[in-house]
Amino acid sequence: MKALLWASLVTSTFGATHNDEQYSPPFYPSPWAKGEGGWADAHQKALDFVSQLTLAEKVNLTTGNGWMQHHCVGETGSVPRLGFDGICFQDGPLGIRFAHYVSSFPAGINVAATWDRKLAYTRGQAMGKEFSDKGADVQLGPVSGPIGRSPEGGRNWEGFSPDPVLTGVFTAETVRGMQDAGVITSLKHFIGNEQEHFRIVREANGYGFNISESASTQIDDKTMHELYLWPFADAVRAGVGSIMCSYQQINNSYGCANSYTMNSLLKNELDFQGFVVTDWGAHGTGVASAFAGLDVSMPGDTDLGSGFSYWGGNLTIAVLNGTVPEWRLDDMAVRLMSAYYKVGRDKLRVPVNFNSWTKHTYGAEHAMVGPQHGYDIVNQHVDVHRGQSALIRKIGAESTVLLKNNGVLPLSGTEKLTAIIGEDAGPNAWGANGCEDRSCDNGTLATGWGSGTADYPYLITPADAIQRTILDKGDGLVDLVTHNWAYDKIQQLASQASVALVFVNADAGEGFLAVDGNIGDRNNLTLWKNGEEVIRQTASVCNNTVVVMHTVGPVLINSWYDHENIKAILWAGLPGQESGNAIADILYGQVNPGAKSPFTWGKDRESYGAPLLYKQNNGNEAPQIDFTEGVFIDYRAFDKTNTTPIYEFGHGLSYTTFSYSDLQIQKLDAAPYKPTTGYTSPASSPSNSSKTWSEYLFPESIRKVPLYIYPYLNSTDPKEASADRHYGLPTDQYIPAGATNSSAQPLHPAGGAPGGNAGLWEEVYKVTATITNTGTRPGDEVVQVYLSLGGPDDPQIVLRGFDKIALETGQTKTFSAVLTRRDISNWDPVTQDWVVSEYPKTVFVGSSSRKLHLNAALP
Length: 859
Ligand SMILES: *[C@@H]1O[C@H](CO)[C@@H](O)[C@H](O)[C@H]1NC(C)=O
Ligand SMILES: *[C@@H]1O[C@H](CO)[C@@H](O)[C@H](O)[C@H]1NC(C)=O
Ligand SMILES: *[C@@H]1O[C@H](CO)[C@@H](O)[C@H](O)[C@H]1NC(C)=O
Ligand SMILES: *[C@@H]1O[C@H](CO)[C@@H](O)[C@H](O)[C@H]1NC(C)=O
Ligand SMILES: *[C@@H]1O[C@H](CO)[C@@H](O)[C@H](O)[C@H]1NC(C)=O
Ligand SMILES: *[C@@H]1O[C@H](CO)[C@@H](O)[C@H](O)[C@H]1NC(C)=O
Ligand SMILES: *[C@@H]1O[C@H](CO)[C@@H](O)[C@H](O)[C@H]1NC(C)=O
Ligand SMILES: *[C@@H]1O[C@H](CO)[C@@H](O)[C@H](O)[C@H]1NC(C)=O
Ligand SMILES: *[C@@H]1O[C@H](CO)[C@@H](O)[C@H](O)[C@H]1NC(C)=O
Ligand SMILES: *[C@@H]1O[C@H](CO)[C@@H](O)[C@H](O)[C@H]1NC(C)=O
Ligand SMILES: *[C@@H]1O[C@H](CO)[C@@H](O)[C@H](O)[C@H]1NC(C)=O
Description:
The structure is a single chain. By secondary structure, the chain is an alpha/beta fold. A hairpin with a 2-residue loop joins strand 7 (249-250) and strand 8 (253-254). It is globular. The two termini are 47 Å apart. It binds 2-acetamido-2-deoxy-beta-D-glucopyranose (11 copies). One 2-acetamido-2-deoxy-beta-D-glucopyranose (NAG) is lined by residues 210, 620.
């Protein structure tokens, strides 16, 4: 329990010492960056840069200047002596938050629904370019945690899919796209951050929960590797520059102070060479977090706007007093600068030209403390959203899943009378950006709410686009009822209509904002705003009803999906600014749907398992969220309990049809797996700074901004400078065993290269099959490869590969996918490595997780 004890001594806000609760094993020292796997060049440049820095300059790179002190949501200190501006961090995963003249891209969940690697990459690149041109260095996205354990999870839509392979592929493609455009990707949230409730003590207190510590998620080692860590491994392998540690605890140790998750899993086993940054305000301890593997504190202050920091001056002191070895500080700075050079930021950098806190041209330089401390041009209104509408529209259409179609779609556009029904078809009367961080469900839903949103440059509603399409195609009538409780008006219109298009939605978002009593996480899985009744009212009088859903994830559709008058159902997710155009493209056949559902549509909530925790379950202490379902979430849970969903994971129809034949599995020549052995090099410091305390006093010349976080000291008396009431405890009480050990350390058997042991990525089987378009239109089919790993504890099947294949009418193509060694392995907690079990394994190829047309044993 020592690891927990020191944490509680170091800071009063930390350290749940619950002997009966699950605990996270200590892992020290924090692995130092080595410049491996494509990082050599960037690492060398970073070493060269950091070797020139003083102690205060290095500390500056590790710590934000404080909440709302600069233009970005977070900015590190700068190195004026070398003309180096602080690093600008900006939200979020689907576009630039707190800025205008930017794009609002489709959400991550829509990217997953496309099952299209190239679109994911292109979206990442397009977003990265916008960030780069606005002067942001780090894009806070994408998201692979939450992965989507519970369907109500408020931020699931920011990520991709509850399947780790799908999420891993799209995380990696997004990372590559963004970083190729020259911004550092900060993948979040590491790890186990699967719900909004109880993530932050203060936030929970604000909602009336009396808890003293954030929730703790308990994840066993096998589940960690086979599910939650999986996509992070893909991202590390893709060269991700940064990873954000999470607010909540893992095994009762905070995400940003957990040596097991950061040091062992991320930096040792996955050999991550970039930097770990805190979620905003998730920093809760000084020295302990440095040892546990944290590299950058954001936005720098203890509590947002406090003016104090666990790092900043405290980190300068911790190095000066000999507690934190200089090599650990240097490693933080080297990791940050490696990421900077890796993405080529040094060649693309422009000064930040937007301001997160005002859209006015002039404003306070330090919004936190007001214009009396500097007033200037803070916004250049640079337009970076140029030319992205076609891409956004394409992703919107290609992510729209055709769940049901009794032959009515596509529409011709020449229908005599088209009825458009539902608030979700029309605009937000308050304006598309009328609610703070999109925290309302007014009008059509094209994104969730919270920090993972961007201002719409415009928002095409379904009503706009459908009316325009109809007017372009012929001379049909079209009318619109967007009042969801105006039943008589709905019926009047729908009963006359040749076709009624009903638009409904369900929203969710981040926990700091509540909408209709939903604290980020959804309170239920039903439609919002009376959606079911709008559908029933329409379908009761119109025998040609089509339902379109804009939802953040699965909703319960059992009460209406099989109504005889409901002829087609579409899920359009959260398509972003081109929402209306995208759905019109599908409804009128401009685009033949090829999307597949990235999650399961169950008949009831219970069949998903993995309940979200809405109530305190540990007195006033950290709520305990036990991931007892293991790897059995979404389709794996349905398969395990033999529960038939309404629409299964991977399901999605097309306006054409496909046939599958001729499955072949070829064993490839692969070298036998070699667990990694050997040692790292010892830790080294590129610089050896002066340890003279007086050199780090506030410079005489400085114009001190109130509440600003500096690397300087205001006294050569350490205790006074630190202002920490625990200052000077004997170090053996809080320095974990081994934390300062700078000698060569053993490599992890499953490690040795970014993303893990290279042998895990070796291709061991090739799967091919023949796919034919048997229908009457060209179309795309997503061919899916599932594997039964065969063991008694394994899911019935797991997704292991896929490809989206475009086929002309009558055309036949060969689908092929490769399985890597990781794909056919299980995590073995005993050897701490991946192993291929002796159980017989079967490969399935199909058009969904339950339409497995072909199968064969793995030879
Ligand atoms: C959490 O505890 C479980 C069970 O003791 C263990 O398997 C797992 O590795 C631990 N994970 C972390 C992050 O501490
Ligand atoms: C640290 O960063 C701040 C803010 O950018 C800057 O004013 C200060 O000069 C920097 N200190 C050093 C030692 O470079
Ligand atoms: C929260 O719980 C603690 C411990 O039981 C108690 O002392 C405190 O008064 C409670 N606070 C509120 C606001 O109810
Ligand atoms: C140093 O950290 C302690 C908590 O560990 C905090 O209370 C104090 O305010 C910090 N000091 C400064 C100067 O930020
Ligand atoms: C060294 O400085 C850090 C940061 O202020 C402080 O937490 C720690 O108690 C100090 N240690 C000693 C031995 O003075
Ligand atoms: C917009 O949403 C807010 C928050 O839910 C709600 O209070 C308000 O009535 C809505 N406004 C309109 C015009 O729909
Ligand atoms: C589910 O939540 C939504 C949004 O708050 C609400 O409109 C709806 O009425 C709720 N459904 C049920 C069955 O309570
Ligand atoms: C739908 O209703 C119309 C008008 O009542 C009728 O002409 C038509 O045949 C019906 N279509 C179907 C498919 O039932
Ligand atoms: C750093 O410099 C000091 C003073 O010159 C010296 O005593 C110390 O050994 C040096 N440390 C390293 C790691 O080079
Ligand atoms: C010295 O720093 C501490 C922590 O920042 C602060 O509480 C104190 O007011 C400062 N004193 C002066 C003279 O600036
Ligand atoms: C430092 O780590 C190495 C490698 O794990 C180990 O052999 C050595 O005993 C450690 N040194 C100390 C002083 O603990």
